[in-house]
Write a structure and sequence with these properties.
CATH architecture of the largest domain: 2-Layer Sandwich
CATH class of the largest domain: Alpha Beta
Distance between the termini: 11 Å
CATH topology of the largest domain: Dihydrodipicolinate Reductase, domain 2
Strand order of the largest sheet: 3-2-1-4-5-6
Helix content: 25-40%
Oligomer: single chain
Radius of gyration: 20 Å
Shape: globular
């Protein structure tokens, strides 16, 4: 197949929600995929898309999408691949049904992330994990691939160069997570304006388990998780877009600052050769990264790292930032689909 001439038909599950809308905005002019089906709840099914939701994205919605009829989230959609932005309350069952019907399911939801045969992938880090798909046994020949929690994407990309070169023993992470991560309408303004909320339901366990799977090894059909300790504290802060994380870490092999910076920059050069953009950007300044300055780097696909310095308890500490609904959600799902297409799974 000539990928330049023939686009793959793609459907979106949960198309009226915040992640679904972001998926639409990123796929409208995509060179490899075309939106052929939009699906949502019974409340929205049967309506024109423009009547079924309040469009929140800044990009103008083309008539071809605006006039599309919303369908139910079930087999029968005219597409080969479905991107899932479904709420976790329904995602598990629906995604399994779609995979059983032969669809390639690219999920942003948490439900299948830790399943033993389901890849949890950031392709710049662990694209070899896509081979887990071969052990999935959905009757229709479909499969499920997941991308990580939005904060985990930021932490993983910031720390993987360290892990790859020097190993990791202990990690302490505090997150400052944007309100857009709560969906729309999200956190009430009276709760978040001028305030910090020191709890996000089920968020800390995701951070404390997903990273080991992403950094783990998969070879000859056998998966081995990475072995290090991680403790997370999460906060919702009054920032529209961009999850900032403050990370302290202890390495297995002692190193110096220059070597850490070189590891980050070398990893970015390798990843950029495949992706075509800066996956990581390192700042020497202690005042960077900042959401207002850096969240939209490379259209929201770059994770920014800075303020690297010695830690008095562990070895080192740094600050990292990434766009939670793009690099941490919709963009993460799309880049997984691009890799799957190149590897011949789609």
């Amino acid at each position: 197949m000539n990928l330049q001439n023939k686009k793959i038909k793609a459907g979106i599950l949960g198309a009226t929600g915040a992640v679904g809308q972001k998926l639409i905005s990123l796929l409208i002019n995509h060179p490899l995929f075309e939106i052929s089906a939009l699906a949502a709840s019974e409340k929205s099914a049967g309506k024109k898309y423009s009547d079924a939701c309040k469009w929140l994205e800044t990009i103008e919605l083309p008539d071809s999408i605006s006039d599309m009829q919303v369908q139910l989230c079930k087999p029968g959609l005219d597409c080969k691949i479905v991107f899932s932005g479904l709420d976790s309350s329904v995602a598990g069952t629906v995604e399994s049904e779609m995979a059983s019907a032969g669809y390639a399911v690219i999920s942003n939801s948490k439900n299948h992330r830790m399943d033993v045969s389901v890849p949890l992938v950031i392709p710049e880090i662990n694209s070899s994990h896509f081979d887990m798909i071969r052990s999935q046994t959905f009757p229709g020949g479909g499969f499920i691939v997941t991308n990580p929690n939005c904060a985990v994407v930021v932490i993983a990309l910031a720390l993987f160069p360290v892990y790859r070169n020097f190993g990791l023993k202990n990690i302490l992470v505090t997150t400052m997570q944007a309100i857009s991560g709560a969906g729309y309408p999200g956190v009430p303004s009276l709760d978040i304006l001028g305030n910090v909320i020191p709890h996000i339901s089920d968020e800390e366990p995701k951070i404390e388990t997903e990273l080991q799977k992403i950094f783990g090894s998969f070879s000859a059909g056998t998966f081995s998780p990475a072995k290090f300790n991680i403790s997370a504290m999460v906060n919702r802060v009054p920032v529209r877009d961009g999850h900032t994380v403050a990370v302290s870490f202890e390495t297995e092999t002692k190193t110096d600052k220059d070597s850490l910076i070189k590891a980050i920059k070398d990893f970015n050069l390798e990843a950029k050769a495949q992706s075509g953009f800066d996956v990581l950007k390192y700042f020497d300044s202690p005042f960077r990264p900042q959401p207002i300055l850096d969240v939209n780097a490379n259209s929201g696909m770059t994770v920014s790292v800075g303020n690297l310095r010695k830690c008095n308890v562990l070895d080192w500490k740094l600050t990292a930032l990434g766009h939670n609904t793009i690099r941490g959600a919709a963009g993460a799902a799309i880049i997984n689909a691009e890799y799957l297409l190149r590897k011949g799974f789609i």
